[in-house]
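Hi F.,

I've been meaning to write this up properly since the lab meeting, where we talked about keeping a consistent format for the predictions we share between groups. The idea is simple: the sequence comes first, exactly as it goes in, then the structure tokens exactly as they come out, then a line or two of notes. No screenshots and no reformatting. I'm using this chain as the first example so we have something concrete to point to.
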Amino acid sequence: MKIAEHEDPKNNYDSVRGKLEGLFQIHLSGTHATLKQRASIVEDCFSANSHLRQEIGLKLLDSALEACRWTGLNTFEFGARPRDFGYNPNFTERLEWLKRFLGIAFKAASSGRPKLESSARHLIASKFRSLWRYPDLRSDLSEHAAEINNGLPWLEGWRAVRSTLYFDYRDPIDTPDRRTAKTHLEQLEADLAPRDLISEIEALVVNPGHDIRLFEEKFDNSSLEKREEACLRLESRAFKYGETIGATPALLDGFVARLFEQNYAPYQMAFGRGLMSGSVKPRETWLMLLGALRALDIKTFNYGVLSGALEELSKSDRPLVDSLLDEAASDNLLICRITCVFAHLKAGHTRRTRLKTSAQWIWSIGAAMQVTKGLGRWSPMRLLHLDLAIKVER
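Output, unedited:
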């Protein structure tokens, strides 16, 4: 464990962490360590004050909760002494194993440590569908899911439940057991569903995942046209959410920082457009967004909301957009994203002039940027990107 803590997390060649994960599989682990021994190691990781140790514990827990796919990458040898494939439990022992580690996972998800809680919630959601296939685990999953959802909406779990319903219970049910399981799952889905406006925004705008079927009750994937129609409906919903928040900016404080998380979030631009459409004081709204972004102290971020906000603003207050572009050209935070943030604005003489001015300013200090540690990310290719943006508009 000590060696794993000091190992480079990016090491993917015969890593110690990878070997540790293999030892915590329920099958093909190559070890006969007892359930109690392995569970206590994971619990010790979570009780430690070291974030590295907690991350290792999450990796071990992820391996222990694998319910249907196991691989044995070890040689199962020990010098001159051959070893077998390790612990090989029967079905009853497998249930005991999964219940024990599932309990540890839910305990971590309500531990009071934000980073550990978030990671544990994501982990349980990623394992939900495979664990639900065990009828004896369903009551545990439902009970613990309701507990952690009471503290903070478990949107990852809601998505996992809806995904399970879609993929495993979409076809006609022909057995009483499956009908009961579906009813149970539908009740759980109703319990975990977003309960307020902020939760709905987080589910659709902040981190919706890649599956749009989760947001459409009667999703039709029979043709590309119908899929695009569903996407447009979701985009319209995100725009309306933005309008509501724009009209009451106090609501934005609770989740504004999450808008810049680097997730797959295809409806952030629509939300940003709605934000400016509903805002009475667009400059103040823009400054609120930038203030939250600066408070995160990050260099890479999702700029979808900023792009959408400027796109909508350009329809009603072009001078303000031009002013914001001038400010961005001298802002160390925005300058690296200037062509991305402003890329969706409609072409215009004023924008071309300001982009050209910005490009000339950047080129003039390009050499200094290359030798400055904080701005070294401005490579000639990035400068060329900005220059190309201007030529395309011509």
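Notes:
The longest helix spans residues 224-247.
The chain has 19 helices and two strands.

If this format works for you, I'll send the rest the same way.

G.
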